Amino acid sequence: MDTLLLLLSIGIFLGFLIQTITGFAGALVALPILLLVMPLTEAVCYISIFYSIASPIYFYKEWKNMDKILLRKLAITSLIGILIGSIVLIYGQPTLLKKALGIFIILFVLNSILNKNNWKFGSKLEFILGLFGGFFSGVFSTGGPLYAVIIKNETSDVRVFRATMFGILGLVSMMRISVLVFEGVFTTIELYNSLYVLPFFILALVLGKIVFLKLDEEFLKKLILTLLLVSGLVLLFKN
């Protein structure tokens, strides 16, 4: 196994292990590892492939726990954001916007820790955040933390949070991979290499589910906030 396939396997395994446990942060874990051996556009393609494979599994197992109304609203705004973000992915990288997203996420986490009352988003702000979730998913494949902020604001139930995150990230991935194919960024090379990584990906899903069932709800809430804080810091300080 060459270096590219080795790091691709490690990145996808660790990313989807965390993704299956918490419902998000898969791309944030996998992306820095993948970027060691490939450009951003190629890394986004690989992450999109495995999100698309995982999505039917997540939907089948978690459908009953998903917030369908919120999922529908986020899907509509995300499609618009992905179309814009995918174009920017090819022609430029909005570093300042990425850092602004990091600051927003950090402030949300600090508010959640210090203030027992969550921020309450109105429908307009929720629309804007959903739009930016799709945008950052299209550009950096890192819209997950923003969706986590929106969904966490809507529910305190970890199972509903996790299931709804699976739902929106699955829909976003299928939208994103369609746009990448249309724009000619996605190639058969990514599909071919993904076959080698598939066993590690399946192992991550199985182990992630086992770990999730063993963790209590309070610990999961703290883990979600911790991952959000880390993701915010990474977005803010990493170029």
Automatic annotation (TrEMBL):
Subcellular location: Cell membrane
Record-linked Pfam families: TauE (PF01925)
Membrane topology according to the record: Multi-pass membrane protein
Domain of life the protein comes from: Bacteria
TM region(s), chain numbering: 33-53, 74-91, 97-115, 127-151, 163-182, 194-213, 219-237
Matching InterPro entries: TM_pro_TauE-like, TSUP
GO cellular component: plasma membrane
Keywords: Cell membrane, Membrane, Transmembrane, Transmembrane helix, Transport
Main location: membrane
Annotated protein name in UniProt: Probable membrane transporter protein
Species of origin: Flavobacterium pygoscelis
